[in-house]
Amino acid sequence: MKLFIDSAELSEIEAAAKTGLIDGVTTNPSLVAKAGVPFEKLLLRICELIDGPISAEVTTLTAPEMIAQGKQLAKLHKNIVVKLPLTWEGLKTCSALSAEGIRTNVTLCFSEVQAMMAAKAGATYISPFVGRLDDIGQDGMGLIRGIRQVYDNYGYETRILVASIRHVDHMRQSVLAGGDVGTLPYKVFQQLLSHPLTDSGLARFMKDWETMKG
Length: 214
Ligand code: G3P
Description:
- The mean pLDDT is about 95.
- The chain is globular and about 75 Å long.
- The chain starts with a strand and ends with a helix.
- The protein has eleven helices and eight strands.
- By secondary structure, it is of the alpha/beta class.
- Helix 6 runs parallel beside helix 8 (about 140-155).
- The protein has an eight-stranded parallel β-barrel with strand order 1-2-3-4-5-6-7-8, surrounded by six helices.
- The chain has helices at about 10-15, 30-35, 40-50, 65-75, 90-100, 110-120, 130-135, 140-155, 170-175, 185-190, 195-214; strands spanning about 1-5, 25, 55, 80-85, 105-110, 125-130, 160, 180-185.
- It is about 55% helix and about 15% strand.
- It has a single domain (about 1-214), classed as TIM Barrel (Alpha-Beta Barrel).
- SN-glycerol-3-phosphate binds near residues 132 and 183.
């Protein structure tokens, strides 16, 4: 399972990178707007921090515009993956960029059929948003299981990038469901190792060790 950080905050990305356990980064226009750093400058800085796939989303809506913007983004750095919306225009762009060897991440996926269409368009990654499905009372993680089945049934190589992860249990379920990548907000990444029995067990070991020394 690959772990990506879902953030455009350089301090968070840098802190996560220091663990040596981060394989890539995903951003989106909302995260970039919040970070307040010019887009291309931000991407280049992220590329310096993490040597892995860095998703950068297009901010245009027609295929010709997305193709032009996607090519420009891909030129910035070899690790840039062009993130595209799951629309007809986005999938036309996905086919065009894939044909040129540019990696893509098709985002805003909420159904197995959408995921199948993105795979047909040659997407490198599909990003199903589990948290946002849970928010409207649907089964986000059920979608991951469904996409896994579709991709395995037909041998699609598109990787399932579980997005909109909101808590550690989403991560646990993603691993069990066969997601290929989990992209995590930094806050959730920090919680991945938390377990009260780990904390109390370690405290006990240290206390007993001190007793023996005494
Ligand atoms: O980057 C896309 C995705 O992870 C967004 O998550 O929490 O805004 O639904 P969220």
